Amino acid sequence: MILFFSVGGGEDLRRYWLDYLRKTHVLVFVVDSSDRPRLPLAKAELHRLLRAEPQLPVVVLGNKQDKAHAVSGSELHEALALHTVTADRKLFLLTSQLDSGAGRKACQDLDTFQNLLLQLL
Questions:
Q1: Distances 99 to 11, 56, 96, 105 between C-alpha atoms, Å
Q2: Is there a contact between 117 and 84 (Cβ–Cβ < 8 Å)?
Q3: Per the annotation, does 63 bind a ligand?
Q4: Is 66 annotated as a binding-site member?
Q5: Count: domains in the chain
Q6: What is the pLDDT of residues 1-11, one digit of tens each?
Q7: What pTM, to 2 d.p., does this model score?
Q8: Is 103 known to sit in a ligand binding site?
Q9: 73 is in an annotated binding site
């Protein structure tokens, strides 16, 4: 069984991230692939979390791949400087288009993601 805690990325919520991180078995860091101007901020926040918990497995989920200006998986890998993460940490980069407003399809996509996450870890 997987229990997900979704803590938003708003500036006012980021101060709580470390509290949740200490109780986490895997970090799923969701990035809006279509929001290019905010990728440097996403990179900084991700690396802050990586430093806080150096052994925690991480899945970076590049969402909104269906948007016209979304970065590709390789561009996201570069923009987030994932190549700088140590080789001994489990790190996975996945791309998706999980749309919370798509009803039943979104639930199926989330189930698929959860199953994939179990297989990866």
A1: 22, 27, 9, 8
A2: no
A3: yes
A4: yes
A5: 1
A6: 566 666 677 77
A7: 0.80
A8: no
A9: no
